[in-house]
Amino acid sequence: MSFTVAIDGPAAAGKGTISRAVAAHFGFAHLDTGLLYRAVGARVLAGEAPLAAARALTAADLEADGLRSPEVAEAASRVAVDPAVRAALVDFQRAFAARSGGAVLDGRDIGTVICPDAQAKLFVTASAEVRARRRLAELLERGHATDFAAVLADVQARDARDSSRATAPLRPADDAVVIDTSDLDIAEAVAAAIAAIDARR
Questions:
Q1: Is 0.85 topped by the overall pTM?
Q2: Contacts of 159 (CB under 8 A, 6+ apart)
Q3: 7: β partners
Q4: Residue 136 is part of which domain span?
């Protein structure tokens, strides 16, 4: 029997960390759908056309080096506004969501577009300033030279692009449980997510 958990939210809100923890807790498979767009973005940076890159995507592309770099993140955000690219990746995501044993998918449009019938939907968010501080810490840890102002500007630009795109804009599903992690530690955020999912099982 399949049970799908859709977890959406903006960059650096904690949805990836929460999704991995939730999947481990329930024994579900996990898919970070943002990696699909990062992999397409990486192929575009290497010279491919966006739609061709999306159609040619393989599982191996999701394990390529450098997918977490700022350059690839920027490219991913740009290709994600292309309706044809999004359409090319829908089947991959829906097939994953339908697997037996349960699945957790995190992204920007899982509860609204990819899996509107998911049994549990969460929308994980936090203030732009909190998310920028988290992202800055990640980037500095990986050796990227940047500062808070630059990261905050990038976070706000991505929020604007993701929320205003014509196809599958970032927004909570009408029946999603919203979890604001601005003032929560990881354990508290994960506990809130598990409680919300348990309530739907």
A1: yes
A2: 10, 11, 128, 170
A3: 106, 122
A4: 4-198
